[in-house]
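Sync notes, pocket subgroup
Present: LS, DG
LS reminded everyone that the earlier model was apo-only. Rerun requested with adenosine-5'-diphosphate included. Inputs:
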Amino acid sequence: MKQQAPRIPVERVVSPHSIAIIGASESIDKFGGRILHNVMRHGYEGRLLPINPNRETLLGLKAYPNIAAAPGPLDLAVVAVPATQLLAMVEECAKAGVGACILVTAQTAEFDAAGAELQDRVAAVAKAHGMRLVGPNCMGMINAPAKLGLTSSMTIQHVPSLRVGGVGLVSQSGALMATLFIHGYDVGVGFSRMISVGNQADLDLTDFFEALVDDAHTTTICLYVEGLKNPARFVELGRSANEKGKTVLAVKAGRTDAGLAAAKSHTASLAGSYAAFAAACRAGGVVLMDEPEAMIMVAGMLDKMGPFGAGSVGLVVSSGGGGAVTADRLTEGGVPMAAWTAGTVAKLETHFLPHHINNPMDLGAHKGALGPHVFAGTLDAVVRDPAVAVLAYMMTPQPLMADTTAALIRARQETGKPVAVLYDTSSFAPEITAQALEGGLPIVKRIDDLIRTLDAGIRLRDLRADLTRPAPQKPAEFVMPASPGTGQLSEPEAKALLAAIGVPVPAEEIVDNEDAAVAAAARIGFPVVLKGVSHTVVHKSDAGLVHLNLGEAEAVKRAFAAIAKALPAGERHVSVQQMARGEAELIVGARYDDSFGPQVIVGFGGVLVELLGDVQTALAPVAPWQAEGMLKRLKLWPLLDGYRSRPKLDVAAAVDTVVRVSWLAAELGPRLRELDINPLLVRRAGHGVIAVDGRGTLS
Ligand code: ADP
Ligand code: MG
């Protein structure tokens, strides 16, 4: 079937002027009935047409026997029929000129092969008519400003109205959308739109992501992702959201093998690697979160707090103990605490003894009489400190809470800096919560939530700053070899490829007899390394194929004999190479992910790479500043940076290698399945790096 131009734009799918509900009934125990109730209950103002062959009217609305009998134009039809009737129903909608169908029907591609085939046929019919599809296997959507609760979820029956706010959600799980709706309601978050995309037979997560980027009501975008159909567009949209000053948060399932398997059977998505998704988030300025509820909570908090500027966290507390614990948890959580500048210390000295002036600043330690001026003066001094990006206040019940809250509101209003309050008023002084919320102060009840909020705000600031830094540029004298090889590359083949792109490798000769090995060693210069050349052995040293530090001819002969014995049948070449020295061993690699494309990785390597698991991944190619960022995010970064009495190592040369390998990955695209330098020996600053082992697979 030929593809037709879409009948309606995505924005119209989310803001329909008319909706037909197929299978509508009065019973809220049925999908169609529940959707009809939900739409009516929240005051949708467009045309609503229940479709039911057995009824003249439903809940006071005129009902129609079938979609063909319903007067058009119809923007949307909700289809909640058993899978056996799905194709026929979609065909009817397509013929009737419906703009888009929301397919609630499940047991499609996520279920089995027959379901996948059905989904494909449904998608083909829609495409041929230019009719858009949401789902199948979705739970509809919510457009709060349009008072539209178009979902089969029960959760929206339990709220008096759809609270309008700046947070938008696109979710690959319908049940999670419904859960997050009520969770957001409970924690005071207002939503703009929430869309459940299901199996994404047609419209996918990025289509609605784009609609949220363009939507004037949405300031913060939350994404629950299982697998992306269009990763490049995801990165682009992240960037344009940031350009518009919108915050994007994402949670992705499939961090573990257990999560991956669950996601696949859930929405039939190929998840791609989690590291690759994290790299895509970084490239798009998207803040990756660990769980959905936290994402919604943080979205609500950041929405109220506004963007973070330079500096770190200033913490003020009204409990010494609570402050100590909060400071511990923030520090463990990687949230940086500010050091007060001299001007701030001078101001604080009017209220506190010098040895009581810390971050956290404990109000309880004041000197002299306690009054509102102590609290106001302290909060004001801290929030105005140029080293403070955000003021966090941990409130415990005490007599001056109303004054303190007023001072916090003033601090926020006068400086425009973000302020967060940690306070659990479950039953005590609810008027303080009301006062804070009215004054625009966001409140969290738990330290964990404060950590997540501050961490996300700081990460967002840094990601956003990165978006303005220079784009990758191909390094000078980077020449792609005309024939980079195919299949599994042996070490000498991989190193030849690396040498061609400008990565230093040791001098090397390939020999096939003892005498030639000795002669080669003499030319290269002792000590040398002998290694068996193999296309099949992955860990050469484990197989007895690596003999290091051979100082004279006899040692070379012995090593040759041993390697000749250890080599797999049919392989007989031995590499004689210069014995290189370095202070640290890195792994630098390239991968091609079918979802996310070319990537570059760097980590602490050698034979301990799997054990250490200290690896960073980025989408390739990368600019030098990105490669440097990857190195700095490694847990063992201090080993490169002069830890204790160690020398500073040649980070610039390591950066250059990462950049070159990233360009190789980008240029070869899917042809380069994987390539590793392991190890790249890193020498002292100014003395460069050298790749002493390489392997790769090209197709
Ligand atoms: P494997 O296939 O087991 O990874 P490698 O070629 O990486 O084999 O050799 C194992 C280890 O030997 C390396 O991690 C490195 O520490 C050391 N090594 C290998 N080649 C050299 C060399 N040319 N100079 C110095 N050390 C080397
Ligand atoms: Mg190796």
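DG: The first strand starts at residue 18 and ends at 22.
LS: Residues 506, 529, 531, 539-541, 546, 548, 577, 579-580, 585, 606-607, 678-679, 692-693 surround adenosine-5'-diphosphate (ligand 1) (CB under 6 Å).
Action: DG to write up.
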